[in-house]
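User: These chains co-purify. Model them together.
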Amino acid sequence: MRLIVHNMLTCNIKGVINKFPLRIEAEKVIKKEVDFNPDFLRHMLAKIEWKALVDGARSMGYTELPDHAPDTERVESDESFLKKFHHALLELHLEEGSLVCQETGRKFPVDKGVPNMVLREDEV
Amino acid sequence: MSETPPEIADIMRVSSHREVYEPCDDSFALVDALLTDQTNLINHKPNICMEIGCGSGYVITSLILLLKSKLSNIHYLATDTNPLAAKVTTETLEAHGLKADVICTDIASCLETRLAGLVDVMVVNPPYVPTPEYEVGMEGIASSWAGGENGRSVIDRMLPVVDRLLSEKGWFYLVTLSCNYPSEICLMMRKRGFAWRILVQRSTEEENLIILKFWRDGEEVERLEEETISDEFSRSLSLFMRKQ
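Assistant: Joint model of the two components:
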């Protein structure tokens, strides 16, 4: 599971208010190189919840992201920032571990890179 | 001379498991529909493409291959409620040297909030086989076909989710059978502001497959006569069959 996906996942257990973000408990993290594509990154930056990305990256051992994302206009020229954003968003993979709902503590397992978000009957 | 790369998934490289639906006539018909629409898809320049119910991974792999040579920066997502299907899809993608983010979830439940309005292309081969209602939502391979009354239980739950996830320019490709009453599905989508078109019609020994494409046409529809859509649907279906 990459952080671009983590940034979209919510806990849908019935009655839960604080659905996002899920806390990452990393057991195995791998890195896979992806082509650098500034246009895609600029498009995604507007959709990304920055703090969730920073915390997610940190829990996977990557601490290079700034606490706050630079302004959209400044991003254009800031290649060093885009490279870090690219790496955190697209190249880090949580292979094994869990995603934890911050409200209920329910753990959703990540097995061979695939998060299992299917709820039990009593959670729907 | 260099060999032209295959533009759809290679069936020999599609992974399998006894609890995961294998590519069959419906999967082939859906991929044929995507092939028919390939030029439009390329000109559409999607940012995010998604498949709900990816099963063996045959369809999402084919979609990626169809677009790959022309568009490089697409984010692909695939979901399935069956963890084994999610695993098999990952293997199929890897066997083709491709990547997509695979998530195990019911329809797209864990993505509905944060992914709303972002998906430009949605592809669905739903569980459409008419079955007793209790078979719907069972684990394993049954989740790939059990569709409840008229095969519509899961489809009808999916339509609002698809509407929510699709962007303003979003397109939706859906496999249906004639016994699913596809004209009713078109009516439901019409009420949500979508236009529709038949892309593929194919009769096999067991089923009469119809692949539909939906897109937002910007028109607010307040009142719609059911008969109008039903007539319109029969008309396009017979026109379509005459052309074949």
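The CA atoms of residues 42 and 72 of chain A lie 8 Å apart.
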